[in-house]
Amino acid sequence: MIIAVDGPAGAGKSTVCKILAKRLGFVYLDTGAMYRAFAWALDTGSDGRSRQLRAGLDENQALELLERIPLLFFIKENKLEICYGERVLSEELRSPEISEAASRISQLPAVREFLVSWQRRLAEQVSIVAEGRDTATAVFPKADVKVFLTADLQARAKRRFAEYSEKGISLSLEEMQERIRERDEADSNRDHSPMRPAEGAILLDTSRLSVEEVVDRLGEQVQKLIEAGSPAY
To answer: Using alpha carbons only, how large is the chain's radius of gyration in Å?
Structure first.
């Protein structure tokens, strides 16, 4: 079974999807982390050019780099594991700089096609809860459950601000709002797979909902499919 959850930054996708996946016994597929891993790999490249390429990467450069960057993705112990060579990547993917770089490079078709192929390959192995910007529209258009989570800008900025503060990342609330606004614009207006609700998606505004309330609502939808005998389950 595939549950595909889309929505803008700070809508609560990651938290909701992690809990929902655990509740259902599915694998949580963080597609955004896969893009951040590519951005991180550019930032730490050994050829001395990577930082410059990350700022102005074009399609031909992306194709060349995808051939040689040693990124691998696994399902291990019911979790997505991302490796750069023998190094397992985790918290190093969560900085604001890497997130912004991931947003830029995600607009390149070559990068998206490469990572979408990985995402589909992983989904063939297990039942998943996948979250991102175009998981229900482009990656898994035949997902069993399609969801679009959103929230007002202020609520999203406060959530992301709290998340970064816990990690010791210094950024003002005003700066956070501006970064999210810019990310919304980039994701919604990109030429390749722009962010938008999928046809038939459950639309849910999380501005005034708790995480538990959102998870419960989505869990009910999945349970209905299971009880109805979904062919994918």
So the answer is: 17
Which amino acid, 166? E
How many Å apart are CA 229 and CA 6, to the nearest integer? 25
Question: Which residues are within 8 A (CB) of 191 and not within 5 positions of it... i.e. 6 or more apart?
Answer: 107
Give the pLDDT band of residue 46 (cuts 50, 70, 90).
very low
Query: DSSP alpha helices (H): ranges in 25-93?
Result: 31-43, 50-56, 59-68
Cβ atoms of 190 and 107 closer than 8 Å: yes
3-state secondary structure of 81: strand
Please state the pTM of the whole predicted model.
0.86
127-165 pLDDT, tens digit per residue, is 999 999 899 999 999 999 999 999 999 999 999 999 888
User: Looking at residues 4-14, what average pLDDT do you find?
Assistant: 93
Q: How far is CA 67 from CA 51, 71, 85, in A?
A: 18, 10, 14
Helices (H) and strands (E) in the chain, counts: 9, 8
For the chain, list the domains and their CATH numbers. 1-26+127-225 (3.40.50.300), 31-125 (3.40.50.300)
Cβ neighbourhood burial of 76 (10 Å; 0-12, 13-18, 19+): exposed
CA atoms within 13 Å, Cβ hemisphere of 149: 31
Question: Which residues are paired to 145 by β-bridges?
Answer: 3
Six-digit token string for 194: 């722009």
Question: One-letter amino acid identity for 204?
Answer: L
CA distance 134 to 103: 13
Structure tokens at 217: 């609502």
Q: What angle do CA 83, 8, 220 make, to 5 degrees?
A: 90
